[in-house]
Amino acid sequence: MRALIAAATGLAVALALVLTITAVGAPSGETSPKPLLTTVPKHP
Fold first, then answer.
1. Rounded to whole angstroms, how far apart are CA atoms 3 and 23?
2. Distances, alpha carbon 1 to alpha carbons 11, 15, 26, 37, 44, in Å
3. What is the pTM for the complete model shown?
4. Rounded CA gap, 14 and 8, in Å?
5. Is the pLDDT of residue 31 over 90?
6. How far apart, in whole angstroms, are the C-alpha atoms of residue 31 and residue 39?
7. For all residues of the chain together, what is the average pLDDT?
8. Cα→Cα distances 15→2, 8, 18, 42, Å
Protein backbone atom coordinates (compact mmCIF):
# COMPACT_ATOMS: atom_id res chain seq x y z
CA MET A 1 0.00 0.00 0.00
CA ARG A 2 2.88 2.37 0.76
CA ALA A 3 4.33 1.74 -2.68
CA LEU A 4 1.03 2.69 -4.30
CA ILE A 5 0.86 5.92 -2.31
CA ALA A 6 4.48 6.73 -3.16
CA ALA A 7 3.84 6.09 -6.86
CA ALA A 8 0.71 8.28 -6.84
CA THR A 9 2.58 11.06 -5.03
CA GLY A 10 5.45 10.91 -7.51
CA LEU A 11 3.06 10.99 -10.42
CA ALA A 12 1.23 13.99 -8.96
CA VAL A 13 4.50 15.87 -8.43
CA ALA A 14 5.65 15.10 -11.98
CA LEU A 15 2.31 16.24 -13.41
CA ALA A 16 2.43 19.45 -11.37
CA LEU A 17 5.96 20.13 -12.64
CA VAL A 18 4.91 19.63 -16.26
CA LEU A 19 1.89 21.89 -15.83
CA THR A 20 4.03 24.57 -14.17
CA ILE A 21 6.58 24.52 -16.98
CA THR A 22 3.77 24.64 -19.54
CA ALA A 23 2.14 27.61 -17.80
CA VAL A 24 5.42 29.53 -17.61
CA GLY A 25 6.11 28.94 -21.29
CA ALA A 26 9.29 28.51 -23.23
CA PRO A 27 12.16 30.82 -22.36
CA SER A 28 12.58 33.69 -24.79
CA GLY A 29 15.81 33.72 -26.71
CA GLU A 30 17.40 33.06 -30.03
CA THR A 31 19.03 29.93 -31.28
CA SER A 32 22.50 29.90 -32.75
CA PRO A 33 22.60 30.20 -36.55
CA LYS A 34 25.50 27.75 -36.66
CA PRO A 35 24.57 24.07 -36.84
CA LEU A 36 25.86 21.72 -34.17
CA LEU A 37 28.55 19.32 -35.30
CA THR A 38 27.49 15.79 -34.51
CA THR A 39 30.38 13.96 -36.16
CA VAL A 40 34.14 14.35 -36.08
CA PRO A 41 35.43 16.05 -39.25
CA LYS A 42 37.57 13.90 -41.53
CA HIS A 43 41.19 14.75 -41.94
CA PRO A 44 42.48 14.44 -45.52
1. 30
2. 15, 21, 38, 49, 64
3. 0.54
4. 10
5. no
6. 20
7. 85
8. 20, 10, 5, 45
Q: What's the number of CA atoms in the CB half-sphere (13 Å) around residue 2? A: 0
Exposure pattern of 2-40 as b/e (b: 16+ CB <10 Å)? eeeeeeeeeeeeeeeeeeeeeeeeeeeeeeeeeeeeeee
Spatial CA neighbour of 12 closest among 23, 4, 2: 4
pLDDT per position as a tens digit, 5-22:
999 999 999 999 999 988
Domain ranges, ordered by start, for the chain: 1-25
CA dist 7 and 14 (Å) reads 11
Amino acid at 7: A
